[in-house]
Amino acid sequence: MPSYKLTYFNGRGTAEIVRLVFAAAGTEYEDVRLEQDQWPELKPNTPMGQLPILEMDGTMLCQSNSIARYIAKLAGLAGKTPLDQARVDMVMDGMVDMGNKFAYEIYYEKDEDKKAEKKKDYVEKYVPQFFSSLNKLASDGGYFAGDELTLADIAFYNMTTMVNPYLEQPLSLDGFPKLQKVEDNVTSNPGIAKWLKERPETPY
Amino acid sequence: MAPRYRMIYFNLRARAEPTRLLFAAAGLQYEDVRIRRDTEWPALKPNTPMGQVPVLEVDGVTICQSNAIARYVAKETGLAGKTNLEQAQVDMLVDGMGDLRGKQAAIRKASEDKKDQCKEELAAFAPNFLRRYEELSGPHAGHLVGDSLTWADLEFYDVMTKVLMYLPGIIDNLPKLAKVMDTVPANKGVADWLAKRPETPH
Predict the structure, then answer these.
(1) pLDDT digits (tens, 9 = 90+) for B67-122
(2) Is A71 helix (H, G, I), strand (E, B) or coil?
(3) Is there a smaller number of Cβ atoms within 10 Å at the N or the C end of chain B?
(4) ipTM for this prediction
């Protein structure tokens, strides 16, 4: 088996989805966390000047979702049929949209009044509507594709928990029973449960 | 018999065009449905998975998110990359191109007084980005990944066609990338599509 080396900063950020997939897959990897002052030297030697990167057998991959999909595929967590794989991909992309909307409209907003208004809109209108769509896409058993855990379920858990610390209270799954099941399926996966207990506590 | 695939979008290239290029390159039949934003979209919207288009309907399933659709069609047409690793490389290159696409789309979307600023941002971003892509481009001339056409080449062609409108000489000194711009329209299916596709604002 190749040796995997994941490099990111000391945080969850955009690398955490990869770490969660490694955990679910039970695949060993080196979890390298850079200090900010180590980054300038590495940056020109990365494919696109960004982290995370995955190194294996002399190859370097970048782009967190591409890395996550690659590892998930090898572990059978990316969807069993082409259409299931498409379902997984579309949920992953939807979760990225949800995260980006938070980042660009709220996190980076400097005007405090606008920020508060956008946050209210996000929590009261956007997320419930989006969760309503996602709830329809999930199975009764709490899976976005097929009847087993996939990268899509992990992406849902990862993004909602990523956003929650920045809100007054965690996003509610009330009224979305299938999404609650998705979350339970993710957190009760043995590899993920172990990682959630052991992973470093970091500000982001 | 109706085609197995039905793609629904507005009458634009935009986010649906890479998938149309994939279908064209492979000569795979599909229904290219273009809806009117004002009269048809409001009724369709609640019946889409995430309230957005494009969507692809196939075998009773509806898929949304343009890259998820494109990746599925790329796999169906054998244009996704030949190995798991090549597919990951195609994916990462397409992901990165999202940034370039975003910067050029920002120019179009900006109000008149902000357009120049957005053009400057594209001009500042593109050179480094494209230099890296020249380096990442694989050893086979005219193909970003592997030795044959992939989704990455089609995505690149689509985005660069728009970027070249603002920065015409930008890949003149990047031979591998320039070759991709020749290879893609040399594919017969793509050439036929480029000649007959509807003229749209973007």
Answers:
(1) 999 999 999 999 999 999 999 999 999 999 999 999 999 999 999 999 999 999 99
(2) helix
(3) N
(4) 0.96
